[in-house]
């Protein structure tokens, strides 16, 4: 178990994980997680083969220890269409280039916890994802009994999408998992029922306004025509008779009121 003594004033820095970190990386994973990772996983991490990673170090530690890992986060880019959260990401399915960043592992040695290191490591992933124009979200799984991690993700504005029953199988026992997501670059979940009803109501309201405007415009045209008709001169004729003839005589001109 890695149990380091924390200096009074640690100087925490963050950097990419390198091949020289492989031994410490394996040791910390073994100490922190009940799941055993294959050797290929660690080689892929330290060599950047399909996995991106950041390590936390304490420059206040003496000698070579100042560059030794005390925390880490590993992640990879996945296609949005091929991910398990495709149904909860709103994007144009005709565009196949949309991606997500999936956090694989995150850990900090016990003696360096509660110093904000895990939050800073997650921020590195969030910044990385935000700089990928095709990326729409960062997501991860967390085992149901890891209350500290659940609170951390909630504090960092991750949304819990669903509970996955019997997701993990560890030492002969099943455990549930929570699926968390953080949207970036305009990514969002599809419309909820309430949002859909609100959107339809908005469309209906706008449609009603448009229809009312057209009806009012037509009515104005009718009134305008009637006004013009009323303003036309009306002539009054009186038939008068004279010997041997009958003729019309104009009495006058009037404007109808």
3D structure, described in words:
The structure is a single chain. With 257 residues, the chain is α+β, with helices and mostly antiparallel strands. It has helices spanning 22-32, 39-47, 117-130, 147-155, 193-230, and strands spanning 12-15, 52-58, 69-79, 99-108, 135-143, 159-170, 173-183, 234-242, 245-254. The strands form 2 sheets. A 7-stranded mixed sheet has the order 1-2-3-4-5-7-6.
Distance between the termini: 102 Å
SSE sequence, one letter per element:
EHHEEEHEHEEHEE
What structural class results from the helix and strand content? alpha+beta
Proportion in helices: 25-40%
Summarize the structure in short.
With 257 residues, the protein is of the alpha+beta class. The chain is built from five helices and nine strands; from the N terminus they run βααβββαβαββαββ.
Write the layout of secondary structure elements.
Elements: E1 12-15, H1 22-32, H2 39-47, E2 52-58, E3 69-79, E4 99-108, H3 117-130, E5 135-143, H4 147-155, E6 159-170, E7 173-183, H5 193-230, E8 234-242, E9 245-254
